[in-house]
Known about the structure:
The chain is mainly α. The protein has 19 helices and three strands. The chain has helices at 4-16, 23-42, 47-65, 71-74, 77-87, 92-104, 123-135, 140-159, 169-179, 185-204, 234-243, 249-264, 268-272, 303-315, 338-349, 359-371, 376-383, 388-394, 399-407, and strands at residues 279-280, 285-288, 297-300. It has a three-stranded antiparallel sheet, with no helix packed on it. β1 and β2 (285-288) form a beta hairpin. The longest helix is centred in the N-terminal third of the chain and has 20 residues, at 23-42.
Amino acid sequence: MTDPKTTESIKWLNQYCLPKDDPLVHQHLDKAIDDYLQWMKSAGYSQITRQNYRPQLNQFLCFIKNRRFSWTEIFTFNTLQRFKKIRGQSSVPAINGLSRYLFSQGKIPKPLAQKAQRIDLPQIYQDYLSYQQTHRQATERQVSRIKRVLAAFEDYLQTHKIDLCSLKLEQVDDFLTAFFAPFSTATCNAYRSMIRQFLKYLYRERQIIKRDLSPLIVGAHLFSQAKPPNFLRPHEVQKVFADLKLTTPADIRTYAMVHQAYMLGLRPQEICTLTLDDISFRWQELNVKDRKTKKPIKLPLPEEVIKAIAAYLVGVRPQSQHRTLFLTLKAPYGPLTANVVGYHITNCMRQAAPCSSAYWLRHTYAQNLLEAGASIYEIKEMLGHDSIESTKKYLHIHIKLMRKVLFNETI
């Protein structure tokens, strides 16, 4: 339903937006909107959807009236982007739907909402994307984002006729300056990391460039974000496990996943890829094969983890041809994704630590190893890191150990 504020806004826009140049264009668009809404009704769209679309399309009409657009310029990517800067993202589905309708009626050459065009990149880029999937456990969504950034980078190189083998730092900086202009600081940091990893791959894995440029690709340091990893305090850990329920099949499955995350330090991605063949109840071991480093490791299975897995296998896990340990609980039964594993673990942690995430259990695992006297190199192997620098970021100064060293206190 249209709220009073939106109605007043539309009324003001209608008064402000006087027709310019060619009133026929605005008349055509006005009629197209009416025809589209009538078609939605005949096609079975709900009344609520049609009521939401009408004010959004009227706002788009006012936007067009106040600018010198020809009919062919209305349904273009640039026009939509300009409209989004004023009205935001909420009206985009309505405009995309209108463009699809007009395209089906032969009124415009192509609709706005099209599937993303396939990006064809040179072989070196394709090899890198495969490397991200196989060695860095990148998801399809992550690979898609990396591909878009690399496509822009390759376009820059082609435009300026730069050979990848002779790439210089100034050229990378020039690209980043232009590419980052419309993005937020957080987005720029993410994209900068993608370029940095690609340059590291070119130097270390393929020896295509003669100098490792990756350490030089840095942004302004954000001191407000220079915080150690979060982990659970002992009383929070006790509350997490005290609040775990065994009422429903989903509860029992989550119970097993939480034990693996806390007592073995496994990532959600590692948990969702475990198979029945990876578990040895006889030897009380878990074979973790799908790690970022691609270095399998056998971890001892504590008794609590064995009981949690057994309870899931006996009472919950559905019969399936899949060998993956954790499966969905509704047909068709299939493996869980890392996001689903992370969601269920995080959800049961929120009572103890409202801002926590599944990775907090992994950080807590590292803290427990540190407190037990494990060296940073042993922790590196247990966590499955490929460099000691990655492990250092996971470890927070342990206050009790520091007080023991400084003040000779008993802990």
